[in-house]
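Q: What structure does this chain adopt?
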Amino acid sequence: MTQQPVYATREDVMRALDTKLTARNSAQIDRALQSASRDVDHLCHRRFYPEQDTRYFDWPDSQYRPSWRLWLDDSDLISLTSVTSGGVAIDLADVLLEPNRSGPPYTRLELNIGTRAAWGGGSTHQRDITITGLWGYRNDETTVGTLAGAISSSTATTVTVDGTTASFLGVGSVLRVDSERLLVTGRTMATTGQTLGTNIDQQVKTVTIPVADTSGFAVDEVILVDAERMLIVDIAGSNLIVRRAWDGTATAAHTSGATLYALRALTVARGALGTTAATHTNGAAVVRWDPPALVRDLVIAEAIGRLTSETSGYTRALRAGEGAGERNRDTGAIAALRQAVYDAVGRKARMRSV
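A:
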């Protein structure tokens, strides 16, 4: 089953809850993010993620006036690739995307009435118009880094990045490499190519680790030495300053020369959102799609609400305190955030924006 994109990452929720990583809570968080993201889609009557697709529409002369205007209804358009009507291609220079002052998203197409372009020409008005383009709310993207190794096969499901790039990504991120989109579905340890530059005593809680090159590391990156995970809290010169026994691991003694690993191997779903899986060269730019900030905040809040309710068995999900001090839990903050999201980016009619 194809997984739909989510609007926040597993790591976003874990940071908010200050929880350690386990296989069990990872599955719970991923499930909560899926349901929270789809709930936001339902609340706003639109999908926010970009998807390359071809969609079909009735030509408007038999239903609407004026005949040169085509409403896209529940299909928000980001950019246009091609338009045909009656099997005949329409020059994109003759197509106006509206509203032009605030889009994307674009909610209607209009033919330039100063040209000879016209809808129709097929044997029926039904599905006469074919539109290929990038659909969704907006395609806001951030270049976060580069590939640390080539993707030499279109069927490979593991992508390796450096620490700086990995620090901007998480499980749930939507990436683009060249023209292909990928969904990050997991993260595993990969060698950093560096080794421990000193012995580490078991009892030391925070330690400075000298390495040959710190340029590939990032603050907040989790590294693995033997079986102990450590969190990089700072980088100074050629040293990593780390907090030990991270993610529930135990402190241990480590010897100089031990290999350093980090969460830089990304498990990905290839050819996502209407794109085609392809090969990519080492050093190719990795671009992250960014959902609207309010949408991301709401999904994090909704996911946390689902997780805490699930932990309590839903029987006390709306109650706080014990005994005589028990009271209704304050849910006003999430309700206010939901209203803010709907006001800012919600479609005010289920099918058509005006």
